[in-house]
Write a structure and sequence with these properties.
With 322 residues, the chain is mostly helical. It has one domain (27-307). The protein is built from 14 helices and no strands. The chain starts with a helix and ends in a 15-residue tail after the last helix.
Amino acid sequence: MKAMERAQALSSQHGARTQPLVSAVPLTAFLAALLVVVLWASAFPGIRAGLHAFGPPEVALLRYAVASCVLAIYAVIARLPLPRLRDIPGIALTGAVGIALYNLLLNAGEVRTSSGVASFIVASAPVFMAVESRLFLKERVRLWGWGGILLSFAGVAVIALGASGAGVAVNLSAFLVLGAAVAQSIYFVAQKPFLRRYTAVQYTTYAVWAGTLLLLPFAPGLVSQIRTAPPDTTLAVVYLGVFPGAVGYVVWAYALARLSAWVAGSFLYLVPAFSIGIAWLWLGEVPTTLSLFGGVVVIIGVIVVNTLGKKQRMNTSKTESL
């Protein structure tokens, strides 16, 4: 009898200890994820603002030069270790694709594509991740998944037709943004092995540094453009480096450490909606009805791919990298 009472007491004590852990996923984690959504959503109109005085390569270089400096300060404070020598070539390659190439394509595409529309197209990256995982990692995609992929592609096609605001004219710049989405998806898939050895912030810091080094050939143009750029435009690009860049990645890592990958990833579906709202307030941009419709189709396709389209795989592929 006494043994039973002791067992019940231990059970109740165990329950008392574990209950707070179950019931209190900290509110700060949800607020952090929401903050990241707002910061990353603001990057799209921020790029458009920067393009008023800078070229697409110069926006990318200034943004990530600032981000690299902020992350260097963080690295010193947090005492981030240096990457292993054998990992440096792979990290440099992913930084080349996910930082340098992604931003060059996105910035060039946003010259003639509104920021809200660009955010919808970039949101299709998980669709390309599913295709790449099927081709290179031999991961199965269900019939529902292929349907979601086709749906997202159809949505991008609708966006390309409607983004110009000129009836059925095709906005070719939208395909540059689509190329950026492909580059981002490659970055997400290729970084998976590194995230087994490094934290999200460590890996992102190394990749940002690598991508920034590859953008340095555009430094002469950046120096001349800074001299003539209005201060508010320069500050817009500096904002991109500090907040959507460095701060966004650090806060995202904080949220990922406290939320499940699925819950954290679900927040990212809000990025296009916030981007459209911020672009309207900041730049006065209003996307066409056809582009909005295409964007909604893209998001629905992405949700289908990530819920019905695959077995329990890559459940962290999108969230662990951002």
